[in-house]
């Protein structure tokens, strides 16, 4: 694992995150180290946990395949030790083992992918530090372009101050998971999903993503002091308290503002909702075209 010194390593991580997100499974990073986990591994783990990696499995280099190549035997051994539905590997390592990806997948029963070559992209644009910097600046679109999927934060819906409901925009106040990387303040277009697929309430069901306008900040109009993450789900409502949820960020539509009147704030929120709809429609159109 590296933080920019080896750009291909971070690209491998991003490809794994994107594939796990596509399949709806956890992303586990297998980290081979020359000795038992060092402090740097823990630091990188905190960063990557906030950027989409669900768990890190640290193993000594002795478990790596002989000669550095992931051949059929090595992949089969890895799958037996760490049950997986897909593996994302360094293409150089696959070639080093003389392995054919399609054949490896058929014989081991898992999908095996090699990460795309970074090509001409600049190394700093492939690092975890670059992604974090873009997120903190509110540029979630650039972060998603690097990782290959929208940035996601996970949390539990808790009681807030109730201002959104009073304004006609009831929001879900989130208590975030540890090590979450929260984008910079502003209003974002994104997606909101209740994790429990068996849950249902009102006109919402678990496992379905709903369009959302997501507010991050301290509510400057009300002189708020506590920074919050509050998604407003469009066109659907339910009792969400206590539910573990995820929020995916597509694009920032507005930076924070302080308004002189509640009427001005409400009018702006209506415009925010329409802008969010436009952004998400465009994003869905791009995915279909792609």
Summarize the SSE layout with pairings:
Blueprint: H1 7-23, E1 28-33, H2 39-50, E2 55-60, H3 72-81, E3 86-89, H4 91-96, H5 101-108, E4 111-114, H6 128-136, H7 140-147, E5 151-158, H8 163-167, E6 173-176, E7 186-194, E8 200-201, E9 204-205, E10 209-217, E11 228-233, E12 244-254, H9 262-289
Parallel strand pairs: 1-2, 3-4
Antiparallel strand pairs: 5-6, 5-12, 7-10, 7-12, 8-9, 10-11
Helix pairs in contact: 3-5, 6-7
Our count of helices gives 9
How would you describe the shape? elongated
Number of strands: 12
Query: Main beta sheet: strand number and arrangement?
Result: 6 strands, antiparallel
Low-confidence stretches: 1-8, 35-40, 118-123
Mean pLDDT: 78
> In terms of quaternary structure, what is this?
single chain
Q: Give the proportion of residues in helices.
A: 25-40%
Pairing-aware structural class of the strands and helices? alpha+beta
* Radius of gyration from CA coordinates: 21 Å
Strand content: 15-25%
Cross-sheet strand order for the largest sheet: 6-5-12-7-10-11
């Amino acid at each position: 694992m590296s933080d920019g010194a080896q750009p291909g390593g971070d690209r491998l991580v991003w490809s794994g995150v994107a594939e796990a997100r596509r399949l709806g499974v956890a992303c586990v990073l297998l980290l081979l180290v020359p000795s038992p986990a060092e402090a740097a591994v823990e630091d990188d783990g905190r960063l990557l946990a906030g950027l989409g990696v669900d768990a890190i499995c640290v193993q000594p280099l002795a478990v790596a395949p002989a000669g550095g190549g992931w051949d059929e035997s090595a992949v089969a051994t890895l799958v037996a030790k760490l049950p997986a539905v897909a593996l994302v590997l360094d293409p150089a390592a696959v070639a080093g083992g003389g392995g054919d990806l399609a054949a490896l997948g058929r014989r081991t029963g898992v999908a095996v992918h090699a990460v795309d070559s970074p090509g001409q992209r600049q190394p700093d644009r492939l690092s975890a530090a670059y992604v974090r910097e873009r997120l903190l600046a509110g540029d979630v679109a650039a972060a998603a372009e690097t990782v290959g999927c929208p940035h996601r934060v996970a949390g539990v819906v808790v009681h807030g101050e109730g201002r959104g409901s009073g304004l006609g925009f009831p929001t879900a106040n989130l208590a975030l998971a540890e090590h979450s990387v929260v984008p910079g303040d502003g209003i974002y277009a994104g997606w909101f999903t209740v994790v429990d697929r068996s849950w249902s309430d009102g006109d919402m069901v678990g496992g379905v993503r709903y369009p959302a306008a997501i507010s991050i900040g301290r509510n400057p109009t009300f002189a708020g002091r506590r920074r919050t993450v509050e998604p407003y789900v469009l066109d659907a409502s339910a009792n969400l308290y206590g539910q573990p949820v995820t929020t995916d960020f597509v694009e920032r539509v507005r930076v924070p503002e302080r308004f002189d009147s509640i009427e001005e704030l409400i009018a702006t929120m209506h415009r925010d909702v329409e802008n969010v709809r436009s952004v998400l429609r465009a994003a869905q159109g791009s995915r279909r075209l792609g």
